[in-house]
Amino acid sequence: MKKILTAALTAGCAMALSAPAQAAVSINDTNFDFAAIDGNSLEFAIGYAEVGLANPVDLFLDFTNDLSGLYSFSFTTSSASVNIAQALVSGGGLLGPLSLVKTVDDGTTEQWALSDYGLDAGTYRLTILGEASGVGNSLTGTVNFAAVPEPATWALMILGFALVGGALRRRDREQRVRFNFA
């Protein structure tokens, strides 16, 4: 029994110390003035901005990610002369586009967001449509991503708890004392 527990513990340690999953994200196409990726392999943000919005507003950001995870989309406009009508995320394995929700409209700025939505690996497009009049209008925003643990990670964690629980259960509860008189 000890050999089985030792082998299972060794295998679990070897798997736990192996290289974690790495996500690769890329911006495929965009018509924003600025779009850049910041972050590491399991969490990243795509920052984007457009200065001097033209009328009509028709902006897009295409990106590809090869790891499933939780996505959050958000953006803010800079003036009352910008009126966003629709903001959508489409592509990948989605059955239809996801709409961002207007969370703030104080007459001067608008904020739109879609938080912590689970998306599979794939290619997606963020589209922002609306109207802008006047000069000096801008829009800034981010796409945030956090990886969801892979099933193998969950399995190793559960296996580890089971091994620790089994080892604790099998311990001798009685302390035996032996005296050896020579």
If you had to describe this structure to a student in words, what would you say it looks like?
The protein is of the alpha+beta class and 182 residues long. The chain has 2 domains: 39 residues, no CATH class; 125 residues, Jelly Rolls, CATH 2.60.120.380. The protein has 2 helices and 11 strands. The strands form 2 sheets. It has a 6-stranded antiparallel sheet with strand order 2-3-11-5-9-8, with no helix packed on it. It has a 5-stranded antiparallel sheet with strand order 1-4-10-6-7, with no helix packed on it. Helix 1 runs antiparallel to helix 2. The longest helix has 20 residues. It is elongated, with a radius of gyration of 26 Å. It starts with a helix and ends in a 12-residue tail after the last helix. The mean pLDDT is 79.
Tell me the total number of β-strands.
Answer: 11
Straight-line N-to-C gap: 33 Å
Largest sheet: 6 strands, antiparallel
Structural class by sheet pairing and helices: alpha+beta
Overall pLDDT score: 79
Task: Give the class-level CATH name of the largest domain.
Answer: Mainly Beta
> Gyration radius, to the nearest Å?
26 Å
Poorly predicted runs of 5 or more residues: none
What's the arrangement of strands in the largest beta sheet?
2-3-11-5-9-8
What's the total helix number?
A: 2
Q: Could you say what the CATH topology of the largest domain is called?
A: Jelly Rolls
Short description:
The protein is of the alpha+beta class and 182 residues long. It contains 2 helices and 11 strands; from the N terminus they run αβββββββββββα. It folds into 2 domains: 1-20 and 150-168, no CATH class; 25-149, Jelly Rolls (Sandwich), CATH 2.60.120.
